[in-house]
Amino acid sequence: MKKIIVQIAEEMKRAFVACGYEEKFGMVSVSNRPDLCQYQCNGAMAAAKQYKKAPIAIAEEIVANCKENPMFAEIAAVMPGFINIRLSNVFLSDYLAEMSVADKMGCEPEDKTIVVDYGGANVAKPLHVGHLRSAVIGEAVKRMKRYMGNQVIGDVHLGDWGLQMGLIVEELRDRKPELPYFDESFTGEYPAEAPFTISELEEIYPAASGKSKVDEAFKERAHQATVKLQNGDPAITAIWKHIMAVSLKDLRKNYDNLNVEFDLWKGESDAQPYIPDMIEDLIARGIAYESQGAMVVDIAEEGDSKELPPCIVRKSDGAAIYATSDLATIIEREKLYQPQQYIYLADKRQELHFTQVFRTARKAGYVKQETKMDYIGFGTMNGKDGKPFKTRDGGVLRLEYLLKEVEDAVYDKIMENRTVEEAEARETAKTIGLAAIKYGDLSNQASKDYIFDIERFTSFEGNTGPYILYTMVRIKSILNRYAENHAAIEGFIKAGEREFTKGEVDLMLTVSRFSDTIERAAEELAPHKICQYIYEVANAFSSFYHENKIIGEEDADKQAQWISLITLTLNVLEVCIDLLGFEAPDRM
Question: pTM score, two decimals?
Answer without folding.
Answer: 0.94
